[in-house]
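Q: For a teaching session next week I want to show students how multiple molecules come together into a single three-dimensional assembly. I've collected the sequence lines for a complex. Could you give me the predicted C-alpha cells for the whole thing so I can convert them for display?
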Amino acid sequence: MPILETKGLEKRFGGIIATNHVSMTVETGARHALIGPNGAGKTTLINLLTGVLRPTAGTIILEGRDITALAPHQRVRRGMARTFQINQLFLDLTPLETIGLAVSERLGLGGDWWRFVGARNEVTREIAETVERFRLGDVMHKRTATLPYGKQRLLEIALAFACRPQLLLLDEPAAGVPEAERHELLATITTLPADVTVLLIEHDMDLVFSFADRISVLVNGGLFVEGSPEEVARDVRVKAVYLGEELDA
Amino acid sequence: MTPVAGEISSYLGRRARWSPLEIAFWIFAFATIWLFPGKHLILTETAILALFALSLDLILGYAGIISLGQAAFFGLAGYFSGLVAKYGLINDPALALIASGMVAAVLGFVTSFLVLRGSDLTRLMVTLGVALMLGEIANRFSNITGGADGLQGVNIAPIFGLFRFDLFGHTGYIYSLVVLFICFLIARRIVYSPFGLSLRALKGNSLRAAAIGMPVNRRLVAIYTVSAGMAGMAGALLTQTTAFCSLDVLSLERSADLLLVLIIGGTGYLYGGLIGAVIYKFLQDWIASLTPQYWQFWIGFVLVVIVLTGRERVEGWTAAVRAWIAGLGARFIARPARLRASSERH
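A: Of course. Below is the structure for the complete assembly, covering every listed component.
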C-alpha cells in the first residue's frame, strides 16, 4: 500500500500554475527523491503536502485517508513530518528544549501546563534517544542561534524525526552545509530507520542517486518522469531538461 | 534510564526549581507587610499593578502578543466586582474576585480570535479598539456604571467574613499581595510547563511550531484567556481595595502605562512586571512629591531614555545584576544557581 498518494493535485497563483495535475504515489518504506530544475514547483508541492498551502484542486491521501482538508499540525499527528529548506528553528531555545517540544506534542502533553518540562520519564527518554542519534549531546544546552550551521541542519532533521513520522519529507537537507560538516549530515540521513518512509527533495545529484530507490522528476509544476534511479539516469528527456542546468552549475 | 536521559531529567528538574534569589524576593515582598506599615496604600497599588503587568508578560513576553488593550479586562472586572458588591450579589470579596477574573477571561476568550491573525500593528489596533469600545459602553450606560462620577456606594464585605478592609489599607495590602503571589505561582507553573515552552516556541517561529504538530491557535487562545483572567483579577482588586471604580480603569493610558511598566522591568522572565511595577510606582511617587504637577513629564522622560538606550541593554543590565546576585546566592547556599543563571541567557 502506498503511504502517500496525490490525485490530480493542482495549485494556481492567479494565472500561474505552480503545481499542474500531479498524481504520484510514495510506497511505504521507500527512499523516494523528488528532483527538478529551479522553479519546477518542488517547494510548492511540499507546501501542499504538508498543509501550508491549500490546493486549488485534487486530493492528498495519507495511509488511505484523505488529509486534503487537515491543518498542518493535524497532518503531523497523522504521521507526516517535514524539514525546511531554510532552517526553521526556535533560535532562543536549546536543542534539548526544541526536541522536548516535539516529543511532548507527539505524546499529547503539549498543552500540559501543570507539570514542568521533563517531569515524565517517557519524554526525557525520547529526548535522549533523539539527541544521541543526531549527535547533538555536546550542544544540547546551548542556544540554537549559537550553533554551527551543520549542527543546526542536524537539529532541523532531528526535530522532524522527533515527531516519529511514518513519512519524513526532507526539503534539501544538504543545502548550504559546508563540505567539512557534510559527511556527518549524509551519514545521519542514510542511517534513518528503514520503517520511516523518506521523501527527499534535493538538488545534489550525488546524494539523490546514492540514496533514492525511486525518483520523480518535476518540471514546470507537472510530473515529468518517474522511475528507478537507473531509468531516470538513462532517460533522454531528463537529460535534456537537466543539461542546461548541469552546465550552468 | 540511560546516562543522557538521567542528565536531561535532572537538568530540566533543576531549571524549574526555585532559585535562592526568587525565594529572597518573595520573603522580602511579604516582609514589607511589617517593614513598611505606613506605606500600605501605595504598596497595594504596586501589587495590583504588578499583577496587571504579570498578565501582560504572559502574552507579550511568552507568546509574543503585543496588546494596548489589557485595560479592557481590568476595567470590565473592576466594574463587575464593584456592581456585585454594590447590589450584594456576591458578598465574599474572594469569591467575587474569582468571579470577576472569570468574567474577564470570557471576554479574553471571545476577543482572542481577533488577535490570532495579523501583525503586531493589527494586534495593537484590535486590542486598543476593544478597550475603547468598552470604555465608551461604560460611559454610555452611566445609569449602571456611574459614568464620569464613578461607581458610588460600593461596600466591600470582610474577606471570608473575618477580615474587614481598613482605612490604612493593611487588609487590602495583605489581600492583594496574597492574590499576586497565588497568580504568580500559577504563571510560574505555566511558563515552566510544556505548554509554556510551546508558547516560547510559537513566539519564535509559528510556522515550525505547526510543523511539529502544535495547534498554534489553540495555544494562543488559551494563554490570552488566562492573561485576561489575571488582568481582570487585578482590576477587581483595585475596586475592592478602594471601594470605587471609575471610567479610567478602561482608559488607553492604563494599557499604555502597563506596557511601560513591563518595558522598564523587562519581558519574558515573569519578574519583569513585578520589578517594573515597583520602580514605576515609586518613581511616580517620588517625582510627584518633587513636582506634583509635572510628574508625567519625568515619566515620559524616563520612557524616552529607556527606549533610546535600548530595551536589550536594560534587559542585559538586569540580567547581569541577576547573574551577580545568583552567583552570590550560590556561594552561600550550596545549590547550582550559577549554572541556572548562566544557562538561562547566553
